[in-house]
Every structure is written in C-alpha cells, then in structure tokens.
C-alpha cells in the first residue's frame, strides 16, 4: 500500500534524513588508506546514537538474506555494488567505496548512499561516480506531481545507458516512511508514462547503482549479502530520500 505523508510528516522525515546525511559525512571523513570498514561503520553509528536515532540496517533481516545485517552502514568496495558488510577489511589507495545508511528518528526513516574514492583516484572511477550522481539528479528532477514512476525510472536508466553504464534490473528505489521499504518500487530503468502517478506527499528513496563497464551481470558473495559485478568491473551507488511536493522534489537526506 502506498502511504501519502502530510506536510508535518515530511518535516519529521527531513529530520531523520538529516541524521543519515550527517552519519554518512562522518563515515566519509573517517575513510582513508589503512582505515577499516568497521571504523567507518563506528563513525556513522556514533552520529546516529548521539542524535537519539536508531540504525535502520543493523539486524535488518529480509527473507532473502541468510543472516541479520551486522552493520549500521553497507560498505561496498570496488566491484561490490551494494549490501557490502563493514568488516575489518582495510581500505587501500584508489579504492572506490559506496556507503549506504539508514536511520529512524521519532519513528520515521531516512535512507541515503554516497560513493567516493580513497587516496589517489582513477579518473574512470570518478567518471563512474559522477554518472551515478547525475543519474540520481535526473531521477529527482523527474519526481514531480503528475509524472509517473516510469518517468523517474526512465530518467535514471536512459541516462545511465547513454553513458555506457550497466544497471541492475531487479534492484532499485522504493517508497519509504515509517518503514524503510514501502510501496511503490522505483526501478532504475523503465518506460516513460508508465506506472503509478506521482502525488504530493509521496516519499521515495531513489538509488541508481551503476556498473562501470556496461554489463548488468552480478553475483552474490558467499556472505549472502554482498552483490558483486560478475566480471570484476567497479560499481557506484548514489541515493537520496526525497518528498514529492507541490513545489517540486524536496531532498530529505541533504546535509
Ligand atoms: Mg540505502
Ligand atoms: Mg534504499
């Protein structure tokens, strides 16, 4: 069922989104060569705890997963696309890191993801990250009253394909509110003019996950959580929680 939020509820979700933005910023500021993924997780966890919020990912256990998620952030490095576990793995020079974080504040959820490079970056990785952020911006731009879910999906996917990037067919964005995952699904590729009509008060998490080399193929790690590109190509992930308002899209997980 699709939940439409009141203006007051959107304001509360903005506060939850701000905590997530601050948690991601703290994790990113901690990232450096030799620092472990667990250290990034701890930095995000501290921000969430100090804000009086609750991590949304920790102990999250969807039906398809073999075990509850053990971290506050998903940390996906290089060929890991999403759902990476924040282990003791230490970052190396040139690693492409994607961090995804969710938190509940006063019963409302925020969900956001960023990608960046640690140390000296390969220009191709920076280009992939820029394309992923631009795909997200295209999706947000299309999130307007009167448009449809398919307009968002097409805006993200068509841009990604125009840049020669791969797109995961069966992973994408989602409605969000009192639960992290609500209806509707928001695919990262689709057809304009199709799907549910967008209304003011609809809150969505949009999240392009792009694969550098144009292949769409991925596999699950033996850990049961991490999605990796099949051929080892690097991937990037960018996500914001946004509200559709009469005045246009409002980013709830901005700093
Ligand atoms: Mg997320
Ligand atoms: Mg999400």
TrEMBL record:
Cofactor, how bound (note): Binds 2 divalent metal cations per subunit. Has a high-affinity and a low affinity metal-binding site. The true nature of the physiological cofactor is under debate. The enzyme is active with cobalt, zinc, manganese or divalent iron ions. Most likely, methionine aminopeptidases function as mononuclear Fe(2+)-metalloproteases under physiological conditions, and the catalytically relevant metal-binding site has been assigned to the histidine-containing high-affinity site.
Catalytic activity as recorded in UniProt: Release of N-terminal amino acids, preferentially methionine, from peptides and arylamides
Positions annotated to bind a divalent metal cation 2: 111, 174, 207, 239
Record flagged with keyword Protein transport: no
Cofactor: Co(2+); Zn(2+); Mn(2+); Fe(2+)
Enzyme Commission code: 3.4.11.18
Record: residues binding substrate: 83, 181
Keywords: Aminopeptidase, Hydrolase, Metal-binding, Protease
Ranges for domain Peptidase M24: 12-245
InterPro entries hit by this protein: Creatinase/aminopeptidase-like (IPR036005), Pept_M24 (IPR000994), Pept_M24_MAP (IPR001714), Pept_M24A_MAP1 (IPR002467)
Binding site for a divalent metal cation 1: 100, 111, 239
GO MF, any single term: initiator methionyl aminopeptidase activity
Enzyme class: hydrolase
Family, as annotated: Belongs to the peptidase M24A family. Methionine aminopeptidase type 1 subfamily.
Cited function: Removes the N-terminal methionine from nascent proteins. The N-terminal methionine is often cleaved when the second residue in the primary sequence is small and uncharged (Met-Ala-, Cys, Gly, Pro, Ser, Thr, or Val). Requires deformylation of the N(alpha)-formylated initiator methionine before it can be hydrolyzed.
Subunit structure comment from the entry: Monomer.
Protein name: Methionine aminopeptidase
UniProt gene name: map
């Amino acid at each position: 069922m699709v939940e439409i939020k009141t203006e007051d509820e959107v304001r509360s979700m903005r506060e939850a989104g701000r905590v997530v933005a601050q948690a991601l910023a703290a994790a990113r500021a901690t990232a450096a060569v030799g620092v472990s993924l667990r250290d990034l997780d701890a930095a995000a966890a501290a921000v969430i705890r100090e804000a009086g919020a609750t991590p949304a990912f920790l102990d999250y256990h969807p039906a398809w997963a073999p075990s509850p998620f053990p971290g506050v952030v998903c940390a996906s490095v290089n060929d890991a696309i999403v759902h990476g576990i924040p282990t003791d793995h230490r970052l190396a020079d040139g690693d492409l890191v994607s961090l995804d974080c969710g938190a509940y504040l006063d019963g409302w959820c925020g969900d956001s993801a960023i990608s960046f490079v640690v140390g000296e970056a390969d220009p191709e990785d920076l280009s992939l990250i820029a394309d992923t952020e631009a795909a997200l911006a295209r999706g947000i731009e299309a999130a307007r009253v009167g448009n449809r879910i398919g307009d968002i999906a097409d805006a993200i996917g068509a841009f990604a394909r125009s840049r020669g990037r791969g797109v995961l067919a069966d992973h994408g964005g989602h409605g969000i509110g009192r639960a992290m995952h609500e209806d509707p699904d928001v695919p990262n590729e689709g057809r304009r003019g199709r799907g549910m009509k967008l209304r003011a008060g609809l809150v969505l998490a949009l999240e392009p996950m792009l694969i550098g080399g144009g292949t769409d193929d991925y596999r699950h790690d033996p850990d049961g959580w991490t999605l990796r590109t099949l051929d080892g190509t690097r991937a990037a992930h960018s996500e914001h929680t946004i509200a559709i308002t009469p005045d246009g899209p409002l980013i709830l997980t901005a700093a």
